[in-house]
Amino acid sequence: MTRLTRILRTTAFKLALLYIAVFTGLSGFLLLYISQSTRQLMDTQVSQTVDAEISGLVEEYVRGGIRAVAESIDRRSRRPDASLYLLMDFSGNTIVGNISRLPTVVLDETDGGLRRMRYSRVDATGEVEREALVRIFDLRGGFRLLVGRDLGEQSRFSTILAGALRLWLAAVIIMAAATWFFVSRRVMKRIDAIAATSQTIMHGNLSGRLPVAGNGDEFDRLATNLNEMLERIELLMQGMKDVTDNIAHDLKTPLTRLRTRVENALREAKTTEDYREALLSTIEESEQLIRIFDALLRIARVEAMAPDADMPETDIARLAAEMADLYGPVLEDEDGELVTILPDQPIMALCNRDLVAQGLVNLIENSLKYGRPAEGPLVITVRAGTENGRAVLSVADNGLGIAEEDRDRVSGRFVRLDASRTRPGYGLGLSLVKAIARLHGGNLVLKDAAPGLMACFDLKRAETSGGNTDDGQASDRKPG
Amino acid sequence: MLRILIIEDDAEASAYLAKGLKELGHLADQAADGDTGLHMAQSASYDVLIVDRMLPKRDGLSVIEALRKAGDQTPVLILSALGQVDDRVMGLKAGGDDYLPKPYAFTELLARIEALARRPKAGGEVVTSYRVGDLELDRLTHTCRRGDQDIPLQPREFRLLEYLMQHAGQVVTRTMLLENVWEYHFDPQTNVIDVHISRLRSKIDKDFDKPLLHTIRGAGYTVRDTSD
C-alpha cells in the first residue's frame, strides 16, 4: 500500500471530506438565504420609491396638467442616481424620459404591478442594455407614465455575494485540507508507532510496550489498555514457561531415576529375586509419575466442572474433624500436634464432599511438608467456621510462612518455593485447592498466621443450615 | 478361582487384563462391545464383571442397568477413563459396585475384584465375629482379643481391623481402606494410611510371635495367618 492510498483510506480523510461537504452545503444555504431576503428587501424598497414617485407625478398632473408632469420628469431625470421615467402620449410616442428604447409589449400591460424588464439607456459610454423594475400607470387623457428603478445595484450586490461564496468555499476547502493533513499526520504517526511496536511484539519481543504520549487522549487510553493487556500476556507466557520448565524438571527426575534403576538391574542383577526387586521399584517409580499426571488431570477436571453443579449438603465441621482424625496420628508420630477448632454445631455447606476433603488434606499435607518451624514441634491447626455468611475451612501451621510477595504465585501449577526443588512434592497441591475453592464459588487465601502460614478457603453455606435444627442429627451421627 | 467377564473395547487392555487374571488362576472371558457383553453376562454365570464405561453399541452403564433390571446381582467393577469428578457417583447409581479410574494399577484392580467376589451376599447370614489365627474380633461387643489378651482399639482402629479381617487372606489396597474405612474418595499424597496401619500393627502384632498383618509391597496390606 502506498503512502497516498493509506492516507486516502484513513478515517481522517473521510471525515475531512464529509466536513467539507457539510460546510459547503451550509454556507451555500446561508448565502442563498441572505441573497434572497436582500433581494426581497430591495424589491420592496424599489416598489415603495416607485409608488411614491408615481403618486407625486400624478399629483402634479392633476395640478398642472401634462406639461407640469413633463417638466418634473425632465428635472428629476437629471438628478444623479435617478429613477427611470417615460411619459408617452396615447399613440405611444415618447414625450419625455430617460429611457431610449424598451420592449413595446411592456407598455400594453397596465395592471399596475411591478415587473422586471430589460431596457436601453443612453449613457456616457453610449447605449447600454440594463435591467430594471418598472411600473406603468395610466394618466387620464390617454397618457401613460412609466416609473422604474435600475437594478444595477442589486446585481452588483449579487456579484459581491457570489464572490464572497467562492472565497468562503475556497477558505473552507483549504482549512479542511490543512486540518485533515495535520490531524491525519499526527494520527498516522501515532498509529504507525503502535503498529511498529505490535510488530516487534508479534515477532516475539513481549517486553515491548506501546508509546504513551501522556496527554490522556484516546490514543493514550488505548495504548495504556493495550499495555496492560501485554503485561498480562507476558505474565501468562512467563507462567507458561515456568510450568513447562518445571514439568520438564519434575518429570525428568523420576524418569531418569527409573532408567538408572533398570540399567543397574540389567547390569548387576543376578537372581530372579534381584530382577523382581528392580521391577517392583520400577513400578513404584512409574506410579509416582502417574500420580503427577493424575494430579494435573484432576486440577483440569475440577477447573472444567460447572460451578453451579448440584452440590449436596455436607457438614464441613464433621468433615474437618474426620480429616483431623485421619492425619492426627501422622503428626503424633513426628512429635507434632494437630489441633482442631470446630464449632459444636454442624456447618452445612453446599459442596462436593470428596473434593473438599481433598482440598483440606492437600493443605494439611502442605503444612506437613513445608510448615515445620525452625525449632520445636510442628503444630497444625484445622479450623471450620463461618465468616461473612460463608463456610470457611482453614489450615494453619507454625512454620516459617510464605513471604507476602510469594503468596499469589505459590498456587500456580508446579510452583515450588524452594529453588533447589529437593523437597518432596510437585507443586500441584495448592493449585488443586484453588481450583476446588473456585468450583465452590470461593477462593483460596493465604495469610500470615504469625508465625506460620494459614490457608483458608470458603464454601457456600446451605440455606437450611439453621444450626439448631441440625443439632440433634449431628449428635446422632457416628463419631469420627 | 473366579469366573470373570471383561467387557472392554480396547483389545490390548482387555487382553492384558485377561492374561494377568488367568496367570493368577482365574477364568477370564472377554467381550468387545456392550451388546455382546450383556448377552454373555446373561447367558453364563460370572463371579465379577469388569465393565468399561465407554463401549461401542451399548454404553457400560446401560449394560449394568439392564442386568440389574433383570435381577442379576453379579458384582460389577466399573472402569472409566472419563474421569469426571462425579463419574463414580453416576457409576454407582447405575448399579455398579465399585469404580476404578484409568489408568489403574493391576494390583489395585485385582484387590478390588477379589473383594467384590468374596463380598457377603445380600440377605445372607450376618457375620458377628471374625477370626484369623488367634486374633478375634467381635462385632457385637466391639472387642478384640488375641490369644487370651484383650486388645483395646479406638473406634477407627476397630473399623480398620474389621475391614481387613472381613477380607482376610485378600490384599486390601490403601485406597480401598480410605474408601471403606474413612468413606472418602480422594488421593492422599503421603503415607497417611500406613501410619494408621502401623499403629494397628503395634497393637495386634507387636507383643506376639507371629505377625498377622502383612504389608504386600506395591499393593497394600493383608491380614493372614501364615501357618494355614
Automatic annotation (TrEMBL), chain A:
Its main location: membrane. It comes from the Bacteria. The chain crosses the membrane at residues 12-34, 160-183. It is found in: Membrane. PROSITE patterns: HAMP, HIS_KIN. One of its GO terms (molecular function) is phosphorelay sensor kinase activity. It catalyses: ATP + protein L-histidine = ADP + protein N-phospho-L-histidine. Pfam families: HAMP, HATPase_c, HisKA. Residues 185-238 form the HAMP domain. Keywords: Kinase, Membrane, Phosphoprotein, Transferase, Transmembrane, Transmembrane helix, Two-component regulatory system. SUPFAM superfamilies: ATPase domain of HSP90 chaperone/DNA topoisomerase II/histidine kinase (SSF55874), HAMP domain-like (SSF158472), Homodimeric domain of signal transducing histidine kinase (SSF47384). InterPro entries: HAMP_dom (IPR003660), HATPase_C_sf (IPR036890), HATPase_dom (IPR003594), His_kinase_dom (IPR005467), HisK_dim/P_dom (IPR003661), HisK_dim/P_sf (IPR036097), Sig_transdc_His_kin-like_C (IPR004358), TCS_sensor_his_kinase (IPR050428). Its EC number is 2.7.13.3. One of its GO terms (cellular component) is plasma membrane. Residues 246-463 form the Histidine kinase domain. PANTHER family: HISTIDINE KINASE, SENSOR HISTIDINE KINASE YKOH. This is histidine kinase. The lineage of its organism: Bacteria, Pseudomonadati, Pseudomonadota, Alphaproteobacteria, Hyphomicrobiales.
Automatic annotation (TrEMBL), chain B:
Gene3D superfamilies: 3.40.50.2300, 6.10.250.690, Winged helix-like DNA-binding domain superfamily/Winged helix DNA-binding domain. Residues 3-117 form the Response regulatory domain. It comes from the Bacteria. GO terms for biological process: regulation of DNA-templated transcription. Residues 127-225 bind DNA. Signal peptide: none annotated. The keyword Phosphoprotein applies. SMART domains: REC, Trans_reg_C. GO terms for cellular component: cytosol; protein-DNA complex. The modification 4-aspartylphosphate is found at residue 52. Keywords: DNA-binding, Phosphoprotein, Transcription, Transcription regulation, Two-component regulatory system. Residues 127-225 form the OmpR/PhoB-type domain. GO terms for molecular function: phosphorelay response regulator activity; transcription cis-regulatory region binding. PANTHER family: REGULATOR OF RPOS, TWO-COMPONENT RESPONSE REGULATOR. This is Two component transcriptional regulator, winged helix family. It comes from Roseibium suaedae.
